[in-house]
Write a structure and sequence with these properties.
- The structure holds two protein chains of two kinds.
- Chain A has no helices and twelve strands.
- By secondary structure, chain A is mainly beta.
- The radius of gyration of chain A is 14 Å and the shape is globular.
- Chain B is mostly beta strands.
- In chain B, strands 2, 4, 5, 6, 9, 10 and 11 form a seven-stranded mixed β-sheet that branches.
- In chain B, a hairpin with a 2-residue loop joins β5 and β6.
- The mean pLDDT of chain B is 93.
- The chains are: A mainly beta, B mainly beta.
């Protein structure tokens, strides 16, 4: 069975600090996809990134970067120079490709990030 | 292009009643998935429909059912509502059946009293 663990529940930082959100996953599949979503107070989940299990190259998008390490089953997310607008709940999710006939996402419990001015 | 739309935004129902939630996917997307998000938790998968056929069902009782229409919009039905059904119900659409980026709607907040 697939599982996603986000051990951090709440993180509070001061604006301009760097912050890393941890994600550890479990799966028996060799082919899978990992995702990060942001949920602002409005409630809508905003897609941030998708990585497949064969691509361990780190990715950077502006102030966001992701570190995927299969050896530790981790897919961590770093926000550089955090801003107040980054305050939200962040979810890591896993989808096992080609298992069954669907693309069900299994989510972690989320990390509440508060960025103080 | 419009994103995923859901209606209604908020809903208050009494225990034992029935509810229907609606979702319109992004134009061109053929897959719709439903998730339940209880306060303080991550979303839980309920159903996926692709090309009008059920492709997956999560661990939810038979009181939950869904369908997808020829225009790829979808309905989620919940019968005999329980207090524990109070949650944010999220609809997500994607272009394909497997592990594509899923784009979520704003959700329907259901409160059962």
């Amino acid at each position: 069975a697939q599982k996603v663990t986000q051990a951090q529940t709440e993180i509070s930082v001061v604006e301009k600090e760097d912050v890393t959100l941890d994600c550890v996953y479990e799966t028996r599949d060799t082919t899978y996809y990992l995702f990060w979503y942001k949920q602002p107070p409005s409630g809508e989940l905003v897609f941030l990134i998708r990585r497949n299990s064969f691509d361990e190259q780190n990715e950077i998008s502006g102030r966001y970067s992701w570190n995927f390490q299969k050896s530790t089953s981790s897919f961590n997310f770093t926000i550089t120079a955090s801003q107040v607008v980054d305050s939200a709940v962040y979810f890591c999710a896993l989808s096992e490709a080609f298992t069954g006939a669907n693309s069900k996402l299994t989510f972690g419990k989320g990390i509440t990030l508060s960025v103080r001015p | 292009d419009a994103g995923v739309t859901q209606s209604p935004t908020h809903l208050i129902k009494t225990r034992g009643q029935h509810v229907t939630l609606r979702c319109s996917p992004i134009s061109g997307h053929k897959s719709v998935s439903w998730y339940q998000q209880v306060l303080g938790q991550g979303p839980q998968f309920i159903f996926q429909y692709y090309e009008k056929e059920e492709r997956g069902r999560g661990n939810f009782p038979d009181r939950f059912s869904a369908r997808q229409f020829p225009n790829y919009s979808s309905e989620l039905n919940v019968n005999a509502l329980l207090l524990g059904d109070s949650a944010l119900y999220l609809c997500a659409s994607s272009s394909g059946q497997f592990s594509y980026e899923q784009y979520f709607g704003p959700g329907t907040r259901l409160t059962v009293t």
